[in-house]
Amino acid sequence: MEETKFNYAHNDTSAPERKSRTAGLNKLRVSAEVEQLRISAHEREVPTASEETLNFILALALAKNAENILEVGCAEGITSLALLNTCSRAHLTAIERDQAFFCAAQTNLSAYEGRRTLLSGDAADICKGLATEAYDFIFLDCAKVQYIKLLPELKRILKKNGVLLADDVLMYGWVNGEAETPKKRRMLVEHIREYLEAVTSDGQLATSVLDIGNGLAMSVKRN
What we know:
It is a single chain. The radius of gyration is 16 Å and the shape is globular. It is 35% helix and 20% strand. Strand 4 (135-140), helix 6 (147-157) and strand 5 form a beta-alpha-beta unit. It has helices at residues 32-43, 51-64, 78-86, 99-108, 123-128, 147-157, 186-201; strands spanning 68-72, 91-96, 116-120, 135-140, 158-167, 205-210, 216-221. It is α/β, with parallel strands linked by helices.
């Protein structure tokens, strides 16, 4: 069988993009199926959440008792699968623009056809068609330049007391000054900083930026 080629530039996803101080203390527990998919993704340099990041996502979704989950940028659906395994009553909707990733996600989530909806296309267009206050847990992990553009729609479709979790907000330590930003990545960093300024200043959201994995921004929609 010919190996699937993905339109994504990434290097060595088996190691965290940024090592937090607590990375070695967290222990990820997932099914054998999820673990094998993660190993395969690492070998093929396909993006998937670090162990520490995925561990936090699952713990938070479980604590929230999430019932309607949206993942924006699901790649091969590995995090989606872990969430469905963890939140046994949840229905998950996942958006993915890359067609190769989308097809892989369909295969990986085939056992959950009754509990998942996969949507192919641009997240900005798709989110406009989603119902107001439809989701109690949103995981945002698409192109980082889109975060600030998506925020108004994500707030609209997030339920009151719902959680919006944005990944990679410290981006190799560039965003918080931990590491020097390469010249060609300065605009990307400014987009992420704009998103962080927006969510931490928004009176409708209670937001905390977390030193987990490559950085997470957790926003809770106020009543």
